[in-house]
Amino acid sequence: MATVAEPIKRPRIKQTQCFIGGKWQDAVSGKRFATIDPATEELLAEVAEGDAADIDLAAKAARKAFESGPWSRMDARDRGRVLYRLADLIEEELNDLAALESLDNGKPVRDARAADLPLVIDCLRYYAGYADKIHGSTIPVRGNYFTYTRKEPVGVVGQIIPWNFPMLMTAWKWGPALAAGCTVVMKPAEQTPLTCLRMAALAQEAGVPDGVINVVPGFGPTAGGAIVKHPGIDKVAFTGEHLTAQIIMREAAQSLKRLTFELGGKSPNVILADSDIEKAVQGTNFGLFFNQGQCCCAGSRVFVEERVHDEVVDRLTSLASSRRLGDPLSPDTEQGPQVDQAQFNKIMSYIQKGKTEGAKCLTGGDRNGDRGYFIKPTIFADVNDNMSIAKDEIFGPVMSILKFKDWEDLIQRANNTFYGLAAAVWTRDISKAHDFARRVRAGTIWVNCYDVFDAAAPFGGFKMSGQGRELGEDGLRPYTETKTVTIALG
Ligand code: NAI
Ligand code: MG
Fold it and tell me: Is the C-beta atom of 241 inside 6 A of ligand 1?
């Protein structure tokens, strides 16, 4: 029998206020809101509830740091060193940060340690190395002129992030912004403010000057909305739901802010009969159930070729039903609770729809236990393209399996969604793999793998899955403005 490891120690919560201009302070309104432990539904901490007044202070601090503070005079190479130091401090605190992330979000601590934290550190180091390599070019123009370009920071950037990867989304946003020389007003998700606040404290310790990073916890329409409307903020980078992105786009029109969006998906994951079935099944299980299914790129439409359909369905079902659910702080746990009551309700309503619309529920289909937002890993087979569970982003541990026979038909079905974030294919046929990669309209294509992320590899969506890219060189571009300088010669 497997031994059950001891749950790891609960980390101490050190930061719960707004971080503005290098100082920790209560919200101007004095309000606070609760962040809870989704595994127990108990209060973890009360956190300052920022709104427009706090965003205004943060935007002013960020403007000052951008225009006249030490940041504006710091060498690019020194900006890079600050980012390297932040990565080092996070690495030193890796276990505590992983536990804090696990506590606030509900994700298994082993995932936080093995995935979130290493990716955070890698992202910061990747962009640290970029800081002194952002430069323009000299351009031959007609006539007796000398023309060159400068890549300047876009200015004060507002960053609004979700709750599914709180630290990682913070790193994806801060890395390129700081490398480019921007200053930041960040609003973490109301469900998971704690690790972002801790990272702000570490950033200060790493030497990020006052006002360069400001963090204002609070709710979407108030604190988030104030970022979008603030005339002193030049750009907004947002990760979350496409409906929220539509609101942001409308509200940002007033000041024509630069916008980048990383939104949701309904990503097709295709298993061909000629694939290594064992690998395909393992990868498909991971590609959907990782992080409780709360991934924008979750492989939530699993297409299986008819010839291997029944075998694959059996194997996926047995894997899903053997997942270990439990205390996220226990190192053995593979699946924790969903992040909050609202997400729990949304997922349960989709499970109900799957059942009433006629899909076959092979495992799960219920909540797990009676405390915390746990949902059993759920698999639906006999799903057709028009069912809600095949069309909508569920953002939970619910897999929809669809059968296919014809390749052309498959490509068309894979593209039959307004999303376009990711797609995967499992096959030994190199021509089919390339055909899939070329014809499926999505920002990321995985062949014989799933959820492979790297700080150097651009990530983002086609269609309604987003606008612009994060990570890699592409991820830096939205944080710079190009200035063209032309000098008459002679
Ligand atoms: P959301 O898009 O409402 O929230 C994401 C962030 O935006 C949070 O920080 C929130 O406070 C902020 N926000 C909300 N309304 C805002 C507004 N009017 N102006 C400015 N900021 C605002 O997503 P939510 O409600 O947490 O989740 C709803 C669904 O969105 C999920 O069920 C899932 O389908 C999808 N989602 C996708 C994510 C992704 O990684 N692409 C992440 C989180 C959710
Ligand atoms: Mg929302």
Answer: yes
